Automatic annotation (TrEMBL):
Residues 18-191 form the Diphosphomevalonate decarboxylase-like N-terminal domain. Performs the first committed step in the biosynthesis of isoprene-containing compounds such as sterols and terpenoids. This is Diphosphomevalonate decarboxylase. Belongs to the diphosphomevalonate decarboxylase family. Residues 205-405 form the Mvd1 C-terminal domain. GO terms for biological process: isopentenyl diphosphate biosynthetic process, mevalonate pathway; sterol biosynthetic process. It catalyses: (R)-5-diphosphomevalonate + ATP = isopentenyl diphosphate + ADP + phosphate + CO2. InterPro entries: GHMP_kinase_C_sf (IPR036554), Mev_decarb (IPR005935), Mev_diP_decarb (IPR029765), MVD-like_N (IPR053859), Mvd1_C (IPR041431), Ribosomal_Su5_D2-typ_SF (IPR020568), Ribsml_uS5_D2-typ_fold_subgr (IPR014721). GO terms for molecular function: ATP binding; diphosphomevalonate decarboxylase activity. GO terms for cellular component: cytosol. The lineage of its organism: Eukaryota, Viridiplantae, Streptophyta, Embryophyta, Tracheophyta. Keywords: ATP-binding, Lipid biosynthesis, Lipid metabolism, Lyase, Nucleotide-binding, Steroid biosynthesis, Steroid metabolism, Sterol biosynthesis, Sterol metabolism. The gene is LOC109723270.
Amino acid sequence: MTGESEKSWILMATARSPTNIAVIKYWGKRDEELILPVNDSISVTLDPDHLSATTTVAVSPSFEQDRMWLNGKEISLSGGRYQNCLREIRKRARDVEDEKKGIRIQKDDWNNLHVHIASYNNFPTAAGLASSAAGFACLVFALAKLMNVKEEYGELSSIARQGSGSACRSIYGGFVKWAMGNNPDGSDSIAIQLAEETHWNDLFIVIAVVSSKQKETSSTSGMRESVQTSALLKYRAETVVPSRVLKIEEAIRDHDFASFARITCADSNQFHAICLDTTPPIFYMNDTSHRIISLVERWNQSEGTLQVAYTFDAGPNAVMIAPNRQAAALLLQRLLFYFPPPQDTDLTSYILGDKSILQEAGLQSVEGIEALAPPPESKDKVPRKKFAGDISYFICTRIGSGPKLLADENQALIDPVNGLPK
Ligand SMILES: Nc1ncnc2c1ncn2[C@@H]1O[C@H](COP(=O)(O)OP(=O)(O)OP(=O)(O)O)[C@@H](O)[C@H]1O
Ligand SMILES: C[C@@](O)(CCOP(=O)(O)OP(=O)(O)O)CC(=O)O
């Protein structure tokens, strides 16, 4: 190992990785340590501009131990998941040379060098929006770049998987399948890209953030309890998911929105049915989530064809997928009719992400929302009650690309001089 003045150099890499939302859910492990699932799952990667983790990893001979800061606060790296990812990446580290900085690190040096990691999520952490997915994918991707790891993306996905199962799918953009695999060592439990984000460009996504508080039952412990107690989980994994996976892959390939939406809604509902079938039962959705499902179902039924799909992870937030911007605009009109912004909230802090959809929905102001007519399908069926304040905010987004290296050093989260978070 060499550097200009032995102790002073710092080498860094910064990456940004998206989160993803499963349309066929992963719920249940067959191996807790290696994080091997009981069924295949399929997800769409979300636009990193709106939902992503940014992570800087730095190495220096002056660092005395591995350290990490998440959203500005130091967190412990002693947990098995962080340790597994660090160990697997270090094993694959190779020689690194930065001619400009005069730094040369040899393969074996990596075992004696420590890293500093700083990460920031541009959306709520541990609120059912898959922060762990973006976070571990980003950590593995950034470390792989720093340590000049040459492995295929499939192998990187299997390392990210050991941080958090759903993270393996965030290694790719677009439509992604996590093949459960059969090997006891997990070597074939990897993510595969089904199609790039450009394949089905029209899809538009609206996320209703119902609560950004931390949830009571983590995905990890929730799925452990389901594996131990739910007979429905076993039936779903063995009988339902294999045929659903084939059908939704076909729907994605053929841009068949009706089939895609039907399977997505059914799979989300079955996942939450498993949570109810768990002893003691787990409730991730709340009254607001149920109201959103009813709103979408009523609309879909009145039109006779599926207008939008909904899916809920381990939390109350709704992720709705529309076939195009026009349908998304009609969806927003409906959502904002029932869930207007609380008083004194301006529209720009209530609708985040791609706000341009508001124009298409004819909603440029809070007055515009107040003037909205009730959706035609609501007539006489439900009381026209409104639920201002039940949704914290909406995120309007699209399907997005996979992890990227940020070459601009100004985007680094670690100070290049003292090696600490900026
Ligand atoms: N940017 C990040 N980098 C590294 N680790 C992260 C990052 N963000 C979150 N994590 C890890 O993920 C944990 C949160 O995971 P958890 O599964 O509880 O919530 P979630 O991923 O937001 O929700 P869910 O997976 O149920 O949709 C954090 O406590 C932290 O350990
Ligand atoms: C409901 C889900 O979001 C569950 C995600 O679980 P995690 O990947 O967070 O669980 P661990 O592997 O224990 O870290 C469904 C999904 O993303 O497929």
